[in-house]
């Protein structure tokens, strides 16, 4: 899929972006463009990679004109840029709207007008039945990318979304926080019942690559991934520490969800993933999605999962970081 293609990654200096770009270089891309706002991170990444196929564009997804320039000659766009920290989005709500929603629309318009072939946008489990602003903006973004397929007209651009859970050890995640704070002898957990989906960075990147192959435009792809108890994660990282229950934070869920009952009616299941299909008039079953239908009342949430990570497995995952 990537061989001899020009690929652009928004938010390319982030955890996902760097991992994806490293993989893309191995897979024979013609050129890969890192599109992000932070010149220091771009400078550091340039020193780390030192590959003549990488180009670095300073830019913000809020700036449509800059996207138009960056998308010139691009075949594939991976949209990973976002404001993603729940607290920051709650405190700066319209900044989150401008980046996560307006930025998504700018990506869509630039991709169509520049003739990009495929766009995959990264979403989050927090976009499913959102209870915080971050999740709400990502839900709106998902809706924009799905609907964008309806007005490409005769052009070739297609848009799909990948939605998955917490990434092990990504920047700003709970793993580096637990590792840092364990020196105090106490690890804070908001609620002892809390569960989360869990995916490795490698798995997340491979899932995006797989869906670049299979996407037809309009799908939201959801991987089948394990769940874990947050208290088990604390025990895996800091077994000698006391766990302090501090109470659930504003905008936080006890359990995460990736597919709820209403979405399940138009979702098909495969061995390793689900595909949420559009409920829109332009979508037809001619798109060859022959997966299994889901039963009435189905919901894919972190507390009703069939696969769970043990403390020992969590130790292994965290130890690989």
Notes on the structure:
- It is a single chain.
- The protein is of the alpha/beta class and 321 residues long.
- It has one domain: 3-Layer(aba) Sandwich (Rossmann fold).
- 36% of the residues lie in helices and 21% in strands.
- The protein is built from 11 helices and 17 strands.
- The protein has helices at residues 15-26, 39-49, 64-70, 86-91, 93-114, 133-148, 174-181, 201-214, 230-237, 261-264, 311-319, and strands at 6-10, 31-36, 54-58, 76-79, 118-122, 158-162, 166-167, 186-189, 195-199, 220-223, 227-229, 242-245, 257-259, 267-269, 273-276, 292-293, 300-301.
- The strands form 4 sheets. Strands 3-2-1-4-5-6-10-15-14-16 form a 10-stranded mixed sheet, with helices on both faces.
- Helix 2 links the parallel strand 2 (31-36) and strand 3.
- Helix 1 packs across helix 8, helix 5 runs parallel beside helix 6 (133-148) and helix 9 crosses helix 11.
- It is globular, with a radius of gyration of 20 Å.
Please name the defining characteristics of this protein:
Rossmann fold; 36% helix; ten-stranded mixed β-sheet; alpha/beta; 321 residues; three-stranded mixed β-sheet; 11 helices; 21% strand; 17 strands
What is this structure's SSE topology?
Blueprint: E1 6-10, H1 15-26, E2 31-36, H2 39-49, E3 54-58, H3 64-70, E4 76-79, H4 86-91, H5 93-114, E5 118-122, H6 133-148, E6 158-162, E7 166-167, H7 174-181, E8 186-189, E9 195-199, H8 201-214, E10 220-223, E11 227-229, H9 230-237, E12 242-245, E13 257-259, H10 261-264, E14 267-269, E15 273-276, E16 292-293, E17 300-301, H11 311-319
Helix pairs in contact: 1-8, 3-5, 5-6, 9-11
